[in-house]
Structures are given as structure tokens and as C-alpha cells.
Batch of 2 targets.
Target 1
Amino acid sequence: MEIKTVAVLGAGTMGHGIAQVCAQAGYRVYMRDIEQRFIDNGMKGIEKSLSKFVEKGKITEEEKQAILGRITPTLDLEEACKEADVVIEAIIENPEVKKKVFQEIDSIAPPHAILASNTSSISITLLAASTKRPEKVIGLHFFNPPPIMRLIEIIKGEQTSEETFKIAEEFSRSLGKVTVSINEAPGFAVNRILMPALMEAVYALQEGLGTKEDIDTAIKLGLNWPMGPFELMDFIGLDVCLYVANVLYEEFQDSKYRAPYLLKKKVMAGHLGRKTGKGWYDYTKK
Ligand SMILES: NC(=O)c1ccc[n+]([C@@H]2O[C@H](COP(=O)([O-])OP(=O)(O)OC[C@H]3O[C@@H](n4cnc5c(N)ncnc54)[C@H](O)[C@@H]3O)[C@@H](O)[C@H]2O)c1
């Protein structure tokens, strides 16, 4: 199957990054969100990221303009999906909202189109079940920020066909990414292993083991992580971390996945990390 057009749903942290990656690989991209301000923010993010690539000499100004020219931002779901060969859903992590969106895109996208989700924790099988093409539904789990991070976890749901997997794998590689094949289970591979470590960092802070700065430094220099656990949570979004930890805890009923109250409090306060200007650290002064 020849892929020419990609629809990315959601222009947030992940959606705009995924749209950029697809446009950089030469695809025609529609990026859809539900409000103009989210689209504007997404386009600003893409422009900023591409400008950095120009500054570093990785692409030319002409290439940047050509990449931007391949992206059509839109509020219209029909416009975004009607010619898509691949749809990548990157909207809020809420199963009810995602199920509804999968139902809608199933009725709009061409019959041959693959419907992918970038979900961190929601079952691909569940999303597939709300469509009439469950064999064409798959997980494409990009990492943050998509233009920089090289991995895509490809998640096979219960009914995902081998053909869909092969197309998704080839497509992911055409984006310059390295892929791993994962049979669906909560948290897939990376988050299943990462989340207990992040939760443990918060418990350690709660217990007074050290300051968040010291814990971050310990993990960065002791384990060679590029970011400490608190910096990483701020980068991912504290709401996303809490949501994923809750899904893992609910499924495995194992206390190693249980989210600490301190994290819940941050989320209740709306301190979600970089995207809100405040999380474990304050970004409003920088
Ligand atoms: N943040 C991360 O580090 C990360 C990493 C990998 C995967 N993910 C997953 O990617 C998805 C998006 O996460 P994010 O961090 O980009 O969230 P975000 O909150 O930054 O962005 C979500 C966007 O989706 C939009 N949206 C909501 N409903 C919509 C709809 N019906 N149609 C189109 N857009 C809609 C919102 O307006 C918002 O702009 C989630 O499933 C998340 O689990 C996140």
C-alpha cells in the first residue's frame, strides 16, 4: 500500500511533533484539533522545532518552508481524514473520548486506511472494537519529543492483522524511527518499566530521602539518564504519568504501580509540568 497522506488528530505535545515528523518524511499531513488556539500552539511548536534544525544546519530554510507547506492544520475531522492512508490519533488520554473518535474516523477514512493510536496506556483492542475494521487498528507509540526520540513501539491488538503490522512497521521506518514489536499489555514495554521508577522517586521525596534536585542529580549522574525523574515527569505531563500509573495499578493490582498522593495533589492543583508552566519545577520564571 502506498502511503501519501497522514491525518494526525490532536495538536498537543505529541500530535504536533508527530505531524512534523510525518511532514519531514515527505508525507502530506492534516493536523486536526478541536479549538483554533490548540492548532495555533501546535503550529508554533513545529515552526520553533524546525527553526532549531535550521540553526543547527540539519535542514535548510527552504526545506523548512516545504515541510510547513505539507501540513494543513484544520478543525474539520472530515477534511483531515477523508483522504488519509494512515490516521494517527494523539488526543487526550481518555478511553471514552478516544473510542468515540475511532468510531467517527472509521466512518470517514477510506476503507484501506490504517487507524493508529499513540495512546500510552489504553487498550488498542478496546479502541479497535469501536470500529468496523479492527484488523486495521494498531498502536504507534511515539516518544516525547517525536522529532528527536527514535523509538516507536508498535502495539498489536487482539485483532490487528499481520498485514497492518507490516505496513505500520514500514511506515514507521520511513519516518526514520527504530521500531519494536509489542503484544498489547498495559503500559506496553517502556511505561511498564518506567512508571514504577517515577512513582518510587515521588515516594522517596515524600519520605524525605532528599530534595527533588538531589534525586534528579543522583539519577542523571548515577544512571546516565538525560533527565532526572522529576524533570522527566514535568516533560511528559504529570496528568499523563498519573493516568498511566493508575491504569497499571488497576490492571496488575500491584502496589509498585500505585501513584503517591503527592503526585495526585500536583495534578489536582493543575500543576501538570512544562505544558502548564509549573509541575515539580517552576518554568514561568525562565
Ligand atoms: N506526553 C507524552 O510524553 C506522551 C508520550 C507518548 C504518548 N502520549 C500519548 O499521546 C496522546 C496525547 O498526549 P499529549 O501529551 O500530546 O496530550 P496534550 O494534552 O498535550 O494534547 C492533547 C490534544 O488533543 C486535543 N483533543 C482533545 N480531544 C480531541 C478530539 N476529539 N480531536 C482532536 N483533538 C482533540 C486537545 O485539545 C489537545 O490539544 C495521549 O494518548 C498520551 O497518552 C503522550
Target 2
Amino acid sequence: MKYSDYFKDLSAGSKKQTEIVINGYTDTLPATLIRGRENGKSILITTGMHSGEYPGIPATLTAAERIDPEKVSGRIMMIHCLNPSGFRERTDNYVPEDGKNMNRIFPSDNTGTPADRIVSFVSKELLPETDFVLDLHSGGQSERLTDHLYFPAEGQAAEESLKTASFLNFPYLTASYSRGGEVGYAGNILGIPGLLLERGHSGYCLPEWTENMTEDILTVLTALGVLPGTLRQNQSHTVFRKAVYAESDTEGLWYPYIQENENVRRGQILGEVRNFRNEILQTVSAEGDGIVLYFTPGLSVRPGWPLVAYGLSEKLTE
Ligand SMILES: [Zn+2]
């Protein structure tokens, strides 16, 4: 079923809770549909894709309760958990049936494993009829993180995404060149503006993170004219046009020497991967001056696992 099909039997100025069924996937996706009194933009809000990133889930439930459909212009689909089996199994960021990270495999296809089918549903049935996509994330179970967001950096979606982001209370706005993630695929491939928000970390679900994310949802909807009201642009953010995502080259013991939201200088040693003989296998140094957005506090790492990500405050010399 396509995005608009879900709203066919919903009268103007009403909302309903539903369970989305995906062909070939045994779980259903809990969702809220809101159809405004007036026409306007069609919005998709998703969370729980990474099943150990919690604050977005109650944030969407609270926002769905608070929104009065009589005051809405347009349509809102909120999917409260994109990875229900992962949520149940407490996996960090993958679908337990196939081990796939959904935010790496967009647009995928509807004949594959459960992760492929969920992603294909979003990319083929929902996104093409969507005017804006908001996807809520956090640091993972083994990740510390400072509040930041990602906006698609390429094409026509970049400007509107960044404009919408400027109304939100985030200190760091980071350009994303991703093509295999939900917001990256929507923005950088389909030209649909959107934002990926990151608040909270470490597998916790603290009330202030959830409350801030609820406000984020309502602010984005107001900025897009879906909810009434006026907003002031937040002038205090830093835009990172480039970020570095350092990964482990090897299996080992990771010792970070930084914290989230810390300033780093070019050449500064950010951490080391060692073996059980305490020999250094990998040294991670800052490629430029910047701010640590998130990092793995330790200890066990494997090849390709994230170690530290930092936004660059200066242009790298090529
Ligand atoms: Zn995530």
C-alpha cells in the first residue's frame, strides 16, 4: 500500500492508530495517521530503525497524542518502530532475522530478507509521496553522543532541509552525503528534503531527551506549515560541511582519549586499538580541527566498527 492509500478512509480533521503490514515480514509496524482539516504537505516521521536508540519512540507517541488534527494542514504518518523484532530482542542497530542495518541498504527490494522488505516499503511505497521525512536516532548502546542532526547535502533537498534545521535547537548541523540511509536516500537521490536527528545515547531513554525530541517533531511540523504558529531561527548552531567517521581496522581493545562534544586539534591522538598483549594495532589521529559528535567508549571492537566521529571546523587541504 502506498502512503496515500493509508489516508483514504480517514476523514479530514481526524487521526487513528494502526499496524502496518509488510508482505513477507511477520511483525507489524505500529503507526499513527493524522489527516488535517486543511490540505498541506505529506510528512513521514520514523524512528526505532536502530532498535537500541530509544528516545525517538516515546517522542513520536507523545507528539501523536499532542497533535490536534483539526489544526493540521496536510497529512502525517508516524511509524513508532521500524524494527519491532530488533526492539523486542534488544539488538543495537540491526534486524535480528538477517543482521542487516537498515540505514545502509536503501532503497533495497521487496523480495529479500525482512530488513530489505521494510526498507523497500519505505523507499518505494512511502517516500515517493512524501514532501518531508524526519527520522529519529540516538547514539547506540555502546556509543556516547552529543546532540546533532544530519541534513542531505546534495541537490535541491539540501537548502530546504537546512532551512528547517535552523529552527531546531541543535548545536551541530552536519551535512550527509549518505545514499543508503533513509534521509540520505530521500534527499540525495530522490530530492525530498528531510532531517535525521540524534539525541541521547548508551541505550538509555532519559525523559529530557524524549521531551526535546517531542519538541523537535512539533517544531519541524510548524516550520513546514503543517502545524500553525511562528518560529524563530536558532542562530547558535555550527554547520559542519564535512565529518570524519573513523572505524576500527582490526579486532581488539579500543581506548578512546576524548569525550563527546570535545574540541579536537589536527594531529591529536583520539584513541588507540590494542591487543591483549597491550601492543598498539591502530592509532586514530584527528585529520583536522573539529568537535567530537559521538564515540565508542570501549572496549571490544571489530573491523568496520565505529570508533569516533567528528565534524570538521576547517577545510582539509587535498
Ligand atoms: Zn541510529
